[in-house]
Design goal:
mainly alpha; two-stranded antiparallel sheet; single chain
């Protein structure tokens, strides 16, 4: 089964969200760490063989490159979610064992949506836009409770949520 090229995956969109500077730094880390392992560790008289130093350098380079990309993602995603990007980037960088990154993913709020009327950022729990006052959720006209788009009747008061198919016309007999 072929994937549709017009649709992007959510993961692919998040990978494209990583800033360019993080990709450049990650590439430099990926190239420099194996070189560093090979040269610096090679001066030790009890150093492992050349192939082992290259393998260890590549594994460490991959790990540190991935860590660099995560820091870049945290930096940009914190700004998108209205969080302090400097604080979260520093936490991601300096809290040991990647706990800063884990905390970011656990504590981050949802991405704000845009109001369809005025394009102001609104939280997902908002019922009305704080800028223009537009109703953002479907409500029952009688009970004013939130309802789902596929509901036919209000689950709170039983009022029909569908408009009559023929309004203002007399029904024909028969």
């Amino acid at each position: 089964m072929q994937a549709n090229s017009d649709k992007h995956s959510k993961f692919g969109d998040e990978v494209r969200f990583i800033p360019h500077w993080a990709w450049v730094v990650a590439a430099l880390v990926f190239v420099s760490i194996p070189i560093l392992f090979t040269v610096v560790v090679g001066h030790d008289p009890k150093a492992p063989p050349f192939w082992a130093r290259v393998c260890m350098g590549c594994v460490c380079g991959i790990f540190l490159s991935f860590y660099t990309l995560l820091i870049g993602y945290v930096n940009r995603d914190a700004a998108r979610r209205g969080m302090n990007r400097v604080v979260w980037t520093l936490l991601a960088m300096f809290v040991p064992n990647a706990l800063g990154i884990i905390l970011f993913f656990l504590l981050r709020p949802p991405v704000p949506a845009l109001c369809p009327h005025c394009s102001a950022p609104v939280q997902s729990a908002y019922g009305y836009c704080p800028r223009c006052g537009k109703n953002l959720a479907l409500h029952c006209n009688h009970s004013q409770h939130a309802v789902h788009a596929d509901d036919v009747y209000c689950p709170y008061c039983g009022t029909s949520l569908r408009e009559p198919a023929i309004s203002g016309r007399a029904q024909l007999p028969g």
